[in-house]
Amino acid sequence: MSQTFLDRTIDNLRFAWRELRDSSVVRSLGLDESQNRQDRWRRQIADCLARRGGAVSARSRAAALGHDFLRLDDGGKREFLHLLVNEFGVDRDRVGAIMADWNMADDLAEQALLETELRSELVPPFRTILKEFNSLPQGVKFLVDLRADLLRWRKEAPGLAILERDLKELLASWFDIGFLELQRITWNSPAALLEKLIAYEAVHAIQSWDDLKRRLAPDRRCFAFFHPGMPDEPLIFVEVALVSGIAGSVDALIQSDESDQDDDEAVVADTAIFYSISNAQAGLAGISFGDFLIKRVVGELQRDLPELKQFSTLSPIPALRGWMDKQLDAMTQKHETGLPKAIEAALHDCDDLMGPKPVARQPNEVSERTRANIEYLAAWYLLNAKRIETGSAFDPVAHFHLTNGSRIERLNWNGNGNSNGWMQSFGVMVNYLYDLSMIEKNHENYVGQGKIAASSVVKRLLR
Amino acid sequence: MSQTFLDRTIDNLRFAWRELRDSSVVRSLGLDESQNRQDRWRRQIADCLARRGGAVSARSRAAALGHDFLRLDDGGKREFLHLLVNEFGVDRDRVGAIMADWNMADDLAEQALLETELRSELVPPFRTILKEFNSLPQGVKFLVDLRADLLRWRKEAPGLAILERDLKELLASWFDIGFLELQRITWNSPAALLEKLIAYEAVHAIQSWDDLKRRLAPDRRCFAFFHPGMPDEPLIFVEVALVSGIAGSVDALIQSDESDQDDDEAVVADTAIFYSISNAQAGLAGISFGDFLIKRVVGELQRDLPELKQFSTLSPIPALRGWMDKQLDAMTQKHETGLPKAIEAALHDCDDLMGPKPVARQPNEVSERTRANIEYLAAWYLLNAKRIETGSAFDPVAHFHLTNGSRIERLNWNGNGNSNGWMQSFGVMVNYLYDLSMIEKNHENYVGQGKIAASSVVKRLLR
Amino acid sequence: MSQTFLDRTIDNLRFAWRELRDSSVVRSLGLDESQNRQDRWRRQIADCLARRGGAVSARSRAAALGHDFLRLDDGGKREFLHLLVNEFGVDRDRVGAIMADWNMADDLAEQALLETELRSELVPPFRTILKEFNSLPQGVKFLVDLRADLLRWRKEAPGLAILERDLKELLASWFDIGFLELQRITWNSPAALLEKLIAYEAVHAIQSWDDLKRRLAPDRRCFAFFHPGMPDEPLIFVEVALVSGIAGSVDALIQSDESDQDDDEAVVADTAIFYSISNAQAGLAGISFGDFLIKRVVGELQRDLPELKQFSTLSPIPALRGWMDKQLDAMTQKHETGLPKAIEAALHDCDDLMGPKPVARQPNEVSERTRANIEYLAAWYLLNAKRIETGSAFDPVAHFHLTNGSRIERLNWNGNGNSNGWMQSFGVMVNYLYDLSMIEKNHENYVGQGKIAASSVVKRLLR
Amino acid sequence: MSQTFLDRTIDNLRFAWRELRDSSVVRSLGLDESQNRQDRWRRQIADCLARRGGAVSARSRAAALGHDFLRLDDGGKREFLHLLVNEFGVDRDRVGAIMADWNMADDLAEQALLETELRSELVPPFRTILKEFNSLPQGVKFLVDLRADLLRWRKEAPGLAILERDLKELLASWFDIGFLELQRITWNSPAALLEKLIAYEAVHAIQSWDDLKRRLAPDRRCFAFFHPGMPDEPLIFVEVALVSGIAGSVDALIQSDESDQDDDEAVVADTAIFYSISNAQAGLAGISFGDFLIKRVVGELQRDLPELKQFSTLSPIPALRGWMDKQLDAMTQKHETGLPKAIEAALHDCDDLMGPKPVARQPNEVSERTRANIEYLAAWYLLNAKRIETGSAFDPVAHFHLTNGSRIERLNWNGNGNSNGWMQSFGVMVNYLYDLSMIEKNHENYVGQGKIAASSVVKRLLR
């Protein structure tokens, strides 16, 4: 420990105090009660960090601490995390000293050495504690769920945001794509796992075990990534339908029509439709697997079913209607939208769909003209609407698939007939086509120059 | 990229050039030939780092680069690694700028943010390349073996030492003890795995498949740690004999006497003797598993064989004779040894064992008096000889087991009758006893105060 | 082939014809159409039996024949089976000849030889065909299901009854208890397997996946026997609840009260209640596994949960009310029942429960006096009512558990509150206790002398 | 039990006594000692058969009896088996009675019923005991090994031969080909299994673990059949080399020339050479799997390695030299051999190879003329030499492969250079080609008409 340890501790405590004072958690507690357990935690954490009793004992202590943590309510958890991040952070005196040496070093090699030292000094002691929670029976899952909590809490206090970022760094290192295992999920998979699909499906909710069984029928495929540290938990999974020609209606794919369930169906399929991709772990937000998943699954399918010729998604357009609303608002308030006249006109025509008393509530109530307008707007939106800050596609699903190198292939009127589909995009869905020979080029054009690849059919909608 | 990119690149190239110029590798190559492939590597690495074609493509590129690397000879590999570390290091302008901001920040929270940023900036781009080699079919093993190479090469050039340290950081994060799996190894394990035990056994060489089979007999146990990223490779393994009372002779344990091989043997055993612990991966040097392995195995054995009452090693004393040599040299040259008179006298008496024409070459040729002297010296050495720099036990095996919290239990004359045992310690072996109730206390006493735990039997040898 | 082959064939055909003529199947078919495919079958079967093209080809032919058979409707299947059993039966000339030799043999050894020969001659060629269906992908399951069909059809024609008995002999040999594997079924078992539990549960229907999950909770156990030839199909399974003290109400066990689902429940349990045993394969009727299952499961539970002290069933009394009805009828018609006066009186009192307008429809509508009468009758019935032909207990469930060596432990008023329970036994259930130290003695007493073991509590009900 | 039980028992005892009296086993025992244990066995067997204590208990009793049996020496085992077969055989009174009924039955259906009854009565009680030994931990292996013993002992006493035949019937039913599992064996298989390959290899002995590893190299394949009842024991296994063109020398295949071990070898291979097929279980003699194994392996290889175009054996000609010896003897004694003149002449020329002082001891010492003679004789022998009794090929290996539908493809001079090869066939080996499109036809021609298929190359040798 450096000699300025006392100063640093005082600083830390002051910082911690400020956070705590403002925290609603603490205000609701009698401070005295809380003081006792905080003192206990301090001792326990310090013991772990000092490796009292050796490395194995330190791990056991960390596990014991983790068990205690799990028994806390949300308030207690936040209190513990505040204490951890505020009192067991980086040693700033050491950091400052290394920086000074680095600045005075006249040799690149010496600098390199100091950089390694500095990097290590910048890893806060609290990360050691987090890392050792990995020894809990479900340790990795514990940390993933902890980050999910921190993502909800990080606005509350800067300390929790720091903790969240640090944990993300740790998880990103552990969840390197090289460690993930692709597994096919079938009706022969453990019920405890299938139950999680039902819970985690984020795009088209699974209604029942019968619905799930239909999605695992012989003409379907389901794949997920798993990590060896939490082998019972899917990280992300994709549902695929094997069909003839590109499918445009998700209702047709999901409805459990027994008549097309027979085994021969798969044989004549020439197209794989990726109709649902769901992230299963909130705590892994920002650590991306979707791109790898799609391409690994395409590879698996090509090997097993060489008769497949096309790989396409059937995707929602989640932000279309929100974007339309915003543009209409701007037009109402006479702001400059920067949109072409024809688009403004089409938007205007759709106005009566979106008020409190819309003229239609589902695709088949819409007039032919309105339908044409919506398709026109959807095509323009997908091909031209961008986020100002980043220049990327406005629609988040479009951005994901375009980054992956797919192209916009087809719009599907009444692709999703349920109320959620209507609320997002008047039921319009879109196919993104994954043509392996074009993926790199599409990606480069999109990422480098913002060019969005689309089929001639879609482009024609704009003429 | 920062605007000072050019300057930095020039700096980097200058540094690289200095290293390369001095390197015997390059001198032996025509520089022109080598220039071409270096340019190709530069482009390939830059493409990977720029994520050209997207994340999935970047991984594929890294894998291709890894394949190329594997086909290089040692000279080519070093050339590639030099280039990688020298030209794709940390961006020092960015680092300097963040440091400046940090020093001027007047808010602890702002500093915390800058620390995260700095830490991330200090991770050199070359680590990204290393990490992506993980996507090679045997990627983790590739990196472990690469570090083994770097450990041999790091003296050659500072750059390779930096790379080695960086790779160690990466591997230490991946090989967190929480991810390791303990597996029992039996005669039913795959031959391809057992073959590795034969290759990796470092303490008592396995002579043949019959010898190996004997070590996996019903009265034996063998356990190893495995990592999910390289499931066919043991990381470290331990061999255990189940016997009655503490065993003193490794010859008795290893000799394949068929007569004591019957199944009933295990039933009456009350003691587990850990007679060999071998690290199997040179590339994981410094990332420690041995402590965890011993304690996990003790736990497994206790659960499966509740009749076991004692857990002890049977260990060599590898540095005893080297230490004696050194002390005798010092005495010959009339230097101050700091040793007690009695020890100096005993050493003097052993002198004629160690010259070019020793009076004895194996334990049973030794006089009763010499034997007493050696046991006396061995006991003193284990209990008192320390490394000056660190204050830890002079003997490396003693240091390992004492750090783990064991105590010195018994010395065994003629414990190891082969020539290697004679060269290390005149055939004397030692038992370290793992008494679970004392482990933490022993560890703390040893690590904190340098106190070495020993049984009264061993202590009596010094009276 | 023997020279009297022609005669035999004519006999066979005559026999076959008689059966066919009477069979409703054939009458509904135009005979000509059916003739063609019968000729084809004859040729195919003969080819298989002659091993045309070698053993491997013969198996393939049999498999092809099996595939054809699977595509037939029930009428077609029966037609095929008639043909098979009638035209490919035992060679009676050979049988007669061996019998003659046997009768004239004057040497026991010679007789022994002839017996082996005769036994082999008595295995009809059609069994070879059945056996070779085992090479179909799900061959064993195919044969098990075929026997299930034959059990339904055997009354139709003597030939099908012969086939059924023959198939039973084959299956009994294959399903030797030594080949069966006991597996624990949990919520981690494949959904495709769990789905079968839902379908096959014969005692207390499983209402939903939630109901199933409850039955696989930590305080429950479920075990099944499997055969390696049909690894996805349970043969028989048992559901067990771990509770404190003997449970009397199945409703309490099955209802999904979340509050008692926590993990600690299992810890304090001292009693295992076997509350449901279901045979899953109709085609294995008469090949008994239940006895082995119960005792293997008791063994497993004792090993895993040494705190368990009692093993008991909670069982229905399925034939109680039917028996009461019969006795009342006899009394009404003034027949001699042979029952004690007190029983006749109690029956008489229960009369108004069983008419078309019963005074009560569930346990809690019943008067105290009626309840006492029912319990009295149930106890008497279990301890005394016997099948005249066999002397075994009248109640089939009682017979099963008494043969297994259990004793009648306790009667439970309102043990099963649903309408099925009421229809069987006015909701009364019974515990059969498996006391391992008494099992052999109880079995011998019951099987040898018809003595039924019962607790003093149950016996007291009769005083 | 029938009323004539006493008579039958007397008969049985008389029969038993005769066998026992003649048996060397019993003569060497004091009869009194042996009497005691025989009485104990009688009681134990009778208890099992009577199912005392129920079916589960009976199984346990049988298992206990089996354990006792395993501890007996060979004499004791035979004594037990004599007693079992002689005293617990078929009830001949019952058999005789059913036969009488059968002969008087005037109805085919009634006869059919009696046949089932008779068949069941002809299954001796001792088989029940054998079958229940299946409940021993390694029960199936126990019975297989018991039959191996009985095959050695059956000449001793008619009873043991009866037992052997009965056990064969039981094992043949259990080892139905439909239950066998084909597994590929690799260097990753358990050492305990690989050790068995070394022990069981019957054609070309495996010299060492290195030799074995070579036979499991990437350009090799090894497959075995397993039965679920003895999963650790191969039943039969085949070793295959993947090469370019048909291989003629087994030495070239087996020698561990490291230079051709690289992975690319397998890629260019167009031919699979089956160079060794070994039955691993003596106790399954006469229950044939070889035909199925070869064809299943051909199927596996075609699927995995579509570039394979030919499937051929490289086989010894084990009985060639013995046949030549016999013919030469006959010629010496002026008997009629029935051989063509040219063959007699060639035989005569080979005479000096076969005397006590042969002119050559290995292929390369032989003159060109002698070589031509041997090849001529080998070709004639393979194509024409038949067993008089059966009409099948004289050479047993030829008979096996010809029955399987292969053809004689090529003779290979110096195919097997070791002394064993010389003793069998002067080192000549032969390829049998498995051409899937010809297998059925070849089989039918061989089995039906004794026609042996051969390539034109081989036929030309006879011109």
Automatic annotation (TrEMBL), chains A, B, C, D:
- Where does the record place the Malonyl-CoA decarboxylase N-terminal domain? 88-175
Its signal peptide is none
Locate the Malonyl-CoA decarboxylase C-terminal domain: which residues?
178-435
Q: Which GO terms describe its biological process?
A: fatty acid biosynthetic process
Question: Which InterPro entries does the UniProt record give?
Answer: Malonyl_CoA_deC (IPR038917), Malonyl_CoA_deC_C (IPR007956), Malonyl_CoA_deC_C_sf (IPR042303), MCD_N (IPR035372), MCD_N_sf (IPR038351)
Q: Name one GO molecular function term.
A: malonyl-CoA decarboxylase activity
Instruction: Please provide an example of a Pfam family that matches this protein in its UniProt record.
Output: MCD_N
Task: Name the chain's protein.
Answer: Malonyl-CoA decarboxylase
